[in-house]
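Schema walk-through. Below, the input block comes first and the output block second. Nothing else is stored per chain. Lengths vary across the set, and this one has 208 residues.
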Amino acid sequence: MNRLAEYATTLLRARHGRAFPLVLLLIATLALVFHEATPLANLRHAQFDHYQQLMPRLRDNEPVIVVSVDSQSLERHGQWPWSRELMAQLVNQIMAGQPLAVGIDMIFAERDRYSPEVLAERLPALSKSALAGLNEPDSFFSKALSQGPTVLAVVGVVGQASTRRTAATQALAGTGRGQSRRTTDPAFSRRFGQSTATGGRRRWRGSD
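--- output ---
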C-alpha cells in the first residue's frame, strides 16, 4: 500500500502529460479494491441475485430448509389459516424431496373452516347431498403427514387438561407415524434441533 502511495506521488510530481490520467486510474483502482460499497460492487451483487433467480444454486448439503408462509404466499393462497387440504399440498411437495423429517411449527387448534362439518353449521341452507360431495380437509392432511417422519408442534400445559384430537392427528396416530422411533429417538431430536440453526429458507409458492 505504501509503495502504491509513493508511486502515485511520483506520478503527480512528474511533468509528463500522461501522469495525471495514470494517477486517476490508480486512485479509481484502489477505490474499487479497498472499498466495498461501490456502484460496481452493487452491480455485481445485483447480477449475482439475477443469476440465482435464473439458475438457483443446488442446496444438497443443507441440513434444514425452512419453508416460510410470507405475505406473498398469503396474497396468492388467501388469508391464514389455510385449509388443511392446501396444507396437504404443501406437505406433499416437501415429501417429494424425501426429507429426513418434516417439522411443522404451526398449531392446528381450530376446526378447518372449509370442512363439511363447519360449513353445515355456517350455511344451514346447504343440502346434505352438497355437503356429501365436499372433500374432508383433515383426511387429505393426515394422508400427507403419514408419508414420512413428521414432527408436529404442541402447546404445553401445566397440570392435567382435556384436549380435543383432530381428525388429522387421530389418523396420524393410527398409522404409527406420530410415534415413529426415528422422531422420538433423543439422538434424532438433538440432531434435528441443532440443524435448524444453519438451515436455509424458502418461500412456498404452491401450484396454480
